[in-house]
Amino acid sequence: MSKEVKKIDLMIIGGGPAGLTSAIYSARAKMNMLLIEDAILGGQVRTSYSIENYPGFKNVEGGKLADLMEEQAKEQGATIDEFDFIEKVSLSDEEKTIETSSYIYKPKAVIIATGATPKKIPIENEEKFLGKGIHYCAVCDGAIYTDKVVAVVGGGNAALEEALFLSKFAKKVIMIRRHDYFNGEVSTLQQVEKNPKIEIMYNWDLVNGYGGEFLEYLKVKNVKTQEEKDIKVDGLFGYIGTKPKTDLFKDYINLNSRGYIITDENMRTNIKGVYGAGDVREKEFRQITTAVADGTIAALDAEKYIND
């Protein structure tokens, strides 16, 4: 059977902070809009245990903040479709087509807010131990390591924050850092350094992971002395950066060398009526606040584009 074709004003692809903010603004503008998300609404925010830098909240759990954003969007009248997968897209100045597993949409404008996914830990046995000792979400999987030893690899705020979260469960948290510094916020690093359950291994690089059915130990190498040694662990959590989710759009949208969408200050891409917002966009800083700002600007400009 052929799929039903639906003509709408605006399609928002992605349900993180940028997408949900765009949904709030476009719904308030009474646009015929749809936000589509192929996973759980909230994006990476939902996996953050504690957020302390979002205005209006001294401290809020990521899941709670994501729920509030979703609730607000729906109360404003936003139409949201979770778990409908996009099969293919076609984007041009004249026409936009988004085909999902259920429908074919013909929107006048599109906001791409698909975000980014964690980069895989670059070791030989990553796939072997994925879900069996190797993880990328402490909020999702941290509790199973209660009173056990876990390692965290990464050098940014995410790694620091997740180490703090894991210390609530684990007996010990070992941070593996190939440099002698972190790129995260000073206050967060200070919390990590003061935590008696967290050990930081500066200038050590992860070589591989070994074990039977489950991960049992890690081989690490000192980047200065070339010394190698094994560390007994029960789990490993990776936070070495993210990869933008842009594969669907690469044949139409201009991307930079790392795969992020290139936009102007109004979130416009190289195609009229198509916008990029949030972590999927090329920019220097990726924070919840910057994603929300992107989503606001994209929705307002899309409304102007549609009306014109």
UniProtKB/TrEMBL annotation:
GO terms for molecular function: thioredoxin-disulfide reductase (NADPH) activity. It catalyses: [thioredoxin]-dithiol + NADP(+) = [thioredoxin]-disulfide + NADPH + H(+). Belongs to the class-II pyridine nucleotide-disulfide oxidoreductase family. One of its GO terms (cellular component) is cytoplasm. The keyword Disulfide bond applies. Binds 1 FAD per subunit. NCBIfam families: TRX_reduct. Its cofactor is FAD. Homodimer. Pfam families: Pyr_redox_2. It comes from the Bacteria. This is Thioredoxin reductase. Its EC number is 1.8.1.9. It is an enzyme of class 1 (oxidoreductase). GO terms for biological process: removal of superoxide radicals. Keywords: Disulfide bond, FAD, Flavoprotein, NADP, Oxidoreductase, Redox-active center. Residues 9-295 form the FAD/NAD(P)-binding domain.
